[in-house]
């Protein structure tokens, strides 16, 4: 008796079915989602709050920069909590963005526009952050060593009207991306499953994103336009003198330039 | 009284591998037509507007009352059910095309077996097969029934997948319909026994993580399934299952 040959496995045309139990994209995709909130989102809040010190002038801003750079293990924090997660989030985000098939022309609905905007703002932020890190962190005067120069360095940057426009656009795009990212996080991780919960979370994220954006734009205003800080001199910040040994001298040494730091002699 | 007509343009394709052509038809106007009756009218007299004799339009249909899920197609560019799309409410010429993300079988009929494969992958059923009478199932409270009933309305029309920007060749996303069925059967007192397997399946490549939350699915669904809510709930369950598996498995 002839046995019928088993049917050859036919390759399905079109979109392939779910690959159950295959691959690690769930882990990477969820890590991407989480990394946008912590640590990158947390850093963005810190960054905008710190920048808001520009409203109080070059000295206040310089002190904030000095404080941040005086954090313990600051370079480890910088690479481990900012640069590496940010690079992952950015590169994996570009990968995600170019795998979507935008159809907002056919289905012009609010959520669909937000989906496209999340990708557009992400790409804007990506391009901006590359130049921002290069020009403000690594090129030019090094702010970790010279925090007093912080205000001036940004002021010189924003004196270029094109750069000013880029900063304003990037500030709006980045805060939008973050605020909608929080909303998406809550929706995708099952924190806000219900329609009403998602609408309420939308209001909260909108208010939060708008507040961040306004703070950021005010910082740009303070550096670029606030009249009292135009051509502001570089603040005089005494650095910790080399060669200070314990116990620190308690009496003011003759010839000191800074009586509040008795050890310093120039 | 001048005889009114309905202008129709249909993207046709004779075999899966043929290139597509657009044929134009002119159908005598009757009030209260839907796309189904329009296609039936063309089948009565399959002649294009140029007088060329052609074949009737092939498309999937069964119930003709938006309950079987067969007749999804692109109507004026948007994914809709032919049976519930009313001609009087459509802009003319009415443009009909097959769903764009599924391989065309012929004319407006497409191969949507990917949804069936996905439902099999997540075991979207209640396992009750046995060699003896298992007796009556566990009691379901009305509150649970009310929560699950909307999810049981899915007609597998694949419109949620067609309108999804993430459902494409690059991602191989499973689509909202399958995720909603996972919630339905995970919350079923008997179907719950396969919950962990379903959640693990949805964490595979093309799984729930590919959702970009554009929310087109829930806006386009002809049966108003709470799809985004299901994706949110199941998304949480999949994360919890993955974390649990990581530590205890």
Question: What does this molecule look like?
Answer:
The complex is a heterodimer of chains A (266) and B (249). Chain A is mostly helical. Chain A has one domain (25-229): 3 helical TM bundles of succinate and fumarate reductases, CATH 1.20.1300.10. Chain A is built from eight helices and no strands. In chain A, 26% of the residues are buried. The mean pLDDT of chain A is 91. Chain B has 249 residues and is α+β, with helices and mostly antiparallel strands. In chain B, strand 3 (72-75) and strand 4 form a beta hairpin. The termini of chain B are far apart. At the A-B interface, helix 1, helix 5 and helix 7 of A face helix 2, helix 7 and helix 8 of B.
Topology:
The complex is a heterodimer of chains A (266) and B (249).
Chain A: H1 25-37, H2 40-51, H3 58-69, H4 74-97, H5 110-138, H6 150-158, H7 161-188, H8 195-224
Helix pairs in contact in A: 1-4, 1-7, 2-8, 4-5, 5-7, 7-8
Chain B: E1 5-12, E2 21-28, H1 35-44, E3 72-75, E4 78-81, E5 94-97, E6 104-106, E7 109-110, H2 113-121, H3 142-152, H4 159-162, H5 176-187, H6 195-201, H7 216-220, H8 227-248
Parallel strand pairs in B: 1-5
Antiparallel strand pairs in B: 1-2, 3-4, 3-5, 6-7
Shape of chain A: elongated
By CATH reckoning, the class of the largest domain in chain B would read Mainly Alpha
Residue share in helices of chain B?
A: 25-40%
Distance between the termini of chain A: 105 Å
Approximate strand percentage of chain B: 5-15%
Task: Tally the structural domains of chain B.
Answer: 2
Structural class of chain B: alpha+beta
**Given the structure, what is the number of helices of chain B?**
8
Q: What is the makeup of the main sheet of chain A?
A: none
| Radius of gyration of chain B over all CA atoms, rounded | 21 Å
Largest sheet strand order of chain B: 2-1-5-3-4
Residue-averaged pLDDT of chain B = 95
How many structural domains does the protein architecture of chain A include? 1
Beginning-to-end CA distance, first to last residue of chain B: 77 Å
Question: Which pair has the most extensive contact?
Answer: A-B, 43 and 58 residues
CATH topology tier name of chain A: 3 helical TM bundles of succinate and fumarate reductases
What are the secondary-structure elements of chain B, in order, as H or E?
EEHEEEEEHHHHHHH
Strand content of chain A: under 5%
Largest sheet of chain B: 5 strands, mixed
């Amino acid at each position: 008796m002839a046995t019928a040959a088993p049917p050859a496995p036919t390759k399905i045309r079109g979109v392939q079915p779910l690959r159950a139990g295959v691959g690690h994209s769930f882990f990477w995709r969820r890590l991407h989602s989480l990394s946008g909130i912590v640590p990158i989102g947390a850093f963005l809040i810190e960054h905008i709050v710190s920048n808001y010190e520009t409203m109080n002038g070059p000295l206040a801003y310089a002190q904030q920069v000095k404080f941040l750079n005086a954090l313990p293990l600051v370079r480890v924090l910088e690479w481990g909590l900012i640069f590496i997660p940010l690079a992952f989030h950015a590169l994996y985000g570009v990968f995600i963005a170019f795998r979507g098939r935008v159809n907002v022309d056919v289905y012009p609905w609010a959520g669909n526009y937000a989906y496209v905007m999340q990708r557009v703002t992400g790409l804007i932020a990506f391009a901006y952050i590359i130049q921002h890190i290069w020009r403000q962190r690594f090129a030019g005067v090094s702010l970790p060593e010279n925090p007093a120069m912080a205000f001036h360095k940004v002021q010189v940057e924003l004196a270029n009207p094109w750069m000013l426009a880029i900063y304003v656009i990037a500030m709006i795009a980045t805060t939008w991306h973050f605020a909608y990212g929080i909303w998406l996080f809550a929706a995708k991780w099952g924190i806000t499953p219900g329609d009403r919960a998602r609408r309420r979370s939308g209001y909260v994220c909108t208010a939060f994103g708008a507040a961040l954006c306004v703070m950021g734009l005010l910082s740009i205003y303070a550096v670029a336009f606030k009249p009292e800080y135009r051509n502001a001199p570089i603040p005089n910040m005494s650095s910790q003198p080399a060669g200070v040994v314990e116990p620190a001298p308690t009496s003011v040494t003759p010839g000191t330039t800074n009586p509040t730091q008795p050890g310093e002699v120039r | 009284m001048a005889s009114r007509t309905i202008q129709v343009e249909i993207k046709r394709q004779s075999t899966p591998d043929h290139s597509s052509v657009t044929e134009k038809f002119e159908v005598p106007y009757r009030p209260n037509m839907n796309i189904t009756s329009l296609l039936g009218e063309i089948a009565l007299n399959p002649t294009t507007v140029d007088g060329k004799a052609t074949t009737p339009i092939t498309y999937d249909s069964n119930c003709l009352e938006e309950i079987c899920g067969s007749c999804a197609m692109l109507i004026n560019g948007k994914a809709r059910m032919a049976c519930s799309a009313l001609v009087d409410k459509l802009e003319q010429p009415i443009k009909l095309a097959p769903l764009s993300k599924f391989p065309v079988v012929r004319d407006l009929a497409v191969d949507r077996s990917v949804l069936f494969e996905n439902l099999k992958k997540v075991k979207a059923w209640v396992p009750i097969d046995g060699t003896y009478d298992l007796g009556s199932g566990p009691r379901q409270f009305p509150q649970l029934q009310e929560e699950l009933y909307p999810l049981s309305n899915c007609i597998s029309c694949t419109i949620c997948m067609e309108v999804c920007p993430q459902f494409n060749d690059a991602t191989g996303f499973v689509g909202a319909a399958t995720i909603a069925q996972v919630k339905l059967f995970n919350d079923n007192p008997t179907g719950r026994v396969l919950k962990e397997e379903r959640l693990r399946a949805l964490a595979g490549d093309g799984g729930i993580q590919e959702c970009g939350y554009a929310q087109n699915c829930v806006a386009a669904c002809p049966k108003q399934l709470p799809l985004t809510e299901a994706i949110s709930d199941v998304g949480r369950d999949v994360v919890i299952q993955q974390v649990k598996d990581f530590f205890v498995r």
